[in-house]
């Protein structure tokens, strides 16, 4: 108990120092440099007990792993992100001046995703001394998560020579295990007609084409249902057309918000829908795919063995960028994310440190 108390205090202190360094997505350089220096120091101090820990930096991502990997064991990655969204306008205090009150730490990014960062750091260094684990441990603190940037987790997957076999993505889930998360596919639809004078019934009305297509999309049923997430969710959310009351519009545009399941890839969804409408559909990004933990995988087995509550995540994360199985699990609550006066409870950080350690020790 004394050990976990010391680890919690260390995590809380690091969290405060992190939050005091602004780290908006695409602007993480200063926080990344701070963490790199801190983790190098800790790695050197820990080397006497657990051997050399390698600390590397790829863009603003920070990667830690033990030099003496056991080739017969799979690699488990702990991952959380160091960037934040901009502070909400309704903050009642300086979001970059963290403080402690009533057992909680307040400040931008404390809940999303600072608490996961510091909890995973403590768990990593604690477990680095344990040679009896069934896995090799790797810690990846990623940048650009909030804006799905090319130099965040995507850069790690594309360029880092050592890749994990599976992962725990640290995000605020209340330490429940998110075993699936929907993807995100945004389509811009453009209906093209022929302009004309409304009084003479001329032209081809692009608005009518768009409305017919929107109705088709609204009523479209995808054939495959996910056992975890159900149906693909599709909603038309925006529309724009017309220049004057007496001009038949030659163009109408609309936006479709789609939340895919693991049953379809984003290119498949785009092709299915394009074949059913006259409007031209263009995807803003085809990479934000859905994710699900495979049934029977060691991660799922450990979740079930420990009786951890499962959930389906409504939000996306770095999970969608990795090509290996994962679960999403971390301290805090998703409902607090991206809101004013963000906070994390100290007891949640302690519970996460204990939870990560216990989970990893139970992996067989």
Verbal overview:
This protein has 364 residues and is α+β, with helices and mostly antiparallel strands. It has helices spanning 2-19, 29-50, 110-127, 153-159, 206-218, 266-274, 298-305, 346-362, and strands at 53-58, 61-66, 75-81, 99-101, 104-106, 136-142, 166-169, 177-181, 185-192, 196-197, 233-241, 247-248, 251-259, 280-283, 291-292, 310-313, 326-328, 343-345. Strands 1-2-6-3-7-17 form a 6-stranded mixed beta sheet, sandwiched between helices. It has a 4-stranded antiparallel beta sheet with strand order 11-13-9-14.
Continuous helix count: 8
- Strand and helix order: HHEEEEEHEHEEEEHEEEHEEHEEEH
Shape: elongated
Question: The biggest beta sheet, please?
Answer: 6 strands, mixed
Approximate helicity band: 25-40%
Give the strand order of the largest sheet, numbering strands 1, 2, ... along the chain. Answer: 1-2-6-3-7-17
How large is the radius of gyration?
Answer: 24 Å
Strand content: 15-25%
**What is the count of β-strands?**
18
Q: Kindly report the oligomeric state of this protein.
A: single chain
Given helix and strand content, the structural type is alpha+beta
Mean pLDDT across residues: 96
Distance between the termini: 25 Å
Uncertain regions spanning at least 5 consecutive residues: none
